[in-house]
Amino acid sequence: VNNNLHLYSALRLFMVDNGADDWRIAMTYERIFFICLELLVCAIHPIPGHYIFTWTARLAFTYTTSEADADVDIILSIPMFLRLYLITRVMLLHSKLFTDASSRSIGALNKINFNTRFVMKTLMTICPGTVLLVFSISSWIIAAWTVRVCERYHDKQEVTSNFLGAMWLISITFLSIGYGDMVPHTYCGKGVCLLTGIMGAGCTALVVAVVARKLELTKAEKHVHNFMMDTQLSKRVKNAAANVLRETWLIYKYTKLVKKIDHAKVRKHQRKFLQAIHHGTHSLCLSPSRPQTQNVMYDILSELQEKNEDLEKRIVTLENKLDTLTVSLQTLPGLIAHAIGQQQRDLFENHMHRFKQVTYSSERSWTPTRRRRSPSTAPHTSSDSS
């Protein structure tokens, strides 16, 4: 029931976050696989009744076959430890990060999914030692109990079938020591020891990482350490510079201000002069301010390079625009000539059309007048007079 409620809540949250209308949108193949796996883990349970099967194993030292009647409940009881994943779910549901509305709002804005992995990472950041200690002790006890259950039917000497003996076997396997005084006989015990060795290697690596992180200097401690080292190195540089000046004066003294040159003393002071120069340059190289200056110079050069690249991009864009403008200017005279010619043709056609209209209207007005004047203006003939 709890698993179904958790699944229903997860589906509802997915639908609300993504604005989905159908719950089947949230059912991906991965989610379906984990749901089936969770149902399978929760369905494993010992069957009511007393059922026995014959368990055959090969003893480690004598290499003889051992047979024993074992309960079926062993096969169904050991996988029930897989239900311990529910502890992480309880930690998630009762975590302040999960229950705090402000934390969830900030996580939603940054697209952070508050799941078990995020809670475990947070705990490993806040209290890594406690988490590793609880996980190691819990794994140690569970593995010891599992080995005792697997080995009690075939351990005639009651070495690994005893709980303390099983804890000793798991501890030396967890720490990758393996004295060889105790060994499992069954494949079940061997598998548990194999998983214990893998978990031990992982926990050892995590412990090393946690210890290395704890041994690191904090930011304030690093500043103090760098300041002290810088002070000491500056003193060394000053001493080296003073030694260089002293040896320079002594070399000048024993070569120019004496009547007879002592070559042994001159060589001695020349060696000291070179040593002082070497110590001074070495101290300058070890100065903490030198890497800081290099970092500042690197940042400045990176910024200048970015600005240069941006400027080059702008120049290329400007050149492309200038090329486009040049092509447009080259085609502009032809366009202007074409436009002027088109306007002239249109103007000529308009004038011709108007001229035709005027001519046609004048012809129409002149023809009726001529017809009206023709009878009166005709000459008289002899027949008309008679």
UniProtKB/TrEMBL annotation:
<feature type="transmembrane region" description="Helical">
    <location>
        <begin position="163"/>
        <end position="180"/>
    </location>
</feature>
<keyword id="KW-0407">Ion channel</keyword>
<dbReference type="InterPro" id="IPR036122">
    <property type="entry name" value="CaM-bd_dom_sf"/>
</dbReference>
<dbReference type="Pfam" id="PF03530">
    <property type="entry name" value="SK_channel"/>
</dbReference>
<keyword id="KW-0812">Transmembrane</keyword>
<dbReference type="GO" id="GO:0016286">
    <property type="term" value="F:small conductance calcium-activated potassium channel activity"/>
</dbReference>
<protein>
    <submittedName>
        <fullName>Potassium intermediate/small conductance calcium-activated channel, subfamily N, member 1a</fullName>
    </submittedName>
</protein>
<dbReference type="InterPro" id="IPR004178">
    <property type="entry name" value="CaM-bd_dom"/>
</dbReference>
<keyword id="KW-0472">Membrane</keyword>
<feature type="domain" description="Calmodulin-binding">
    <location>
        <begin position="230"/>
        <end position="296"/>
    </location>
</feature>
<dbReference type="Pfam" id="PF02888">
    <property type="entry name" value="CaMBD"/>
</dbReference>
<keyword id="KW-0112">Calmodulin-binding</keyword>
<keyword id="KW-1133">Transmembrane helix</keyword>
<feature type="coiled-coil region">
    <location>
        <begin position="294"/>
        <end position="328"/>
    </location>
</feature>
<keyword id="KW-0406">Ion transport</keyword>
<feature type="compositionally biased region" description="Low complexity">
    <location>
        <begin position="375"/>
        <end position="386"/>
    </location>
</feature>
<feature type="transmembrane region" description="Helical">
    <location>
        <begin position="74"/>
        <end position="97"/>
    </location>
</feature>
<keyword id="KW-0175">Coiled coil</keyword>
<dbReference type="Pfam" id="PF07885">
    <property type="entry name" value="Ion_trans_2"/>
</dbReference>
<feature type="region of interest" description="Disordered">
    <location>
        <begin position="359"/>
        <end position="386"/>
    </location>
</feature>
<feature type="transmembrane region" description="Helical">
    <location>
        <begin position="118"/>
        <end position="143"/>
    </location>
</feature>
<feature type="transmembrane region" description="Helical">
    <location>
        <begin position="32"/>
        <end position="54"/>
    </location>
</feature>
<dbReference type="GO" id="GO:0016020">
    <property type="term" value="C:membrane"/>
</dbReference>
<keyword id="KW-0813">Transport</keyword>
<dbReference type="GO" id="GO:0005516">
    <property type="term" value="F:calmodulin binding"/>
</dbReference>
<dbReference type="InterPro" id="IPR015449">
    <property type="entry name" value="K_chnl_Ca-activ_SK"/>
</dbReference>
<feature type="transmembrane region" description="Helical">
    <location>
        <begin position="192"/>
        <end position="212"/>
    </location>
</feature>
<dbReference type="InterPro" id="IPR013099">
    <property type="entry name" value="K_chnl_dom"/>
</dbReference>
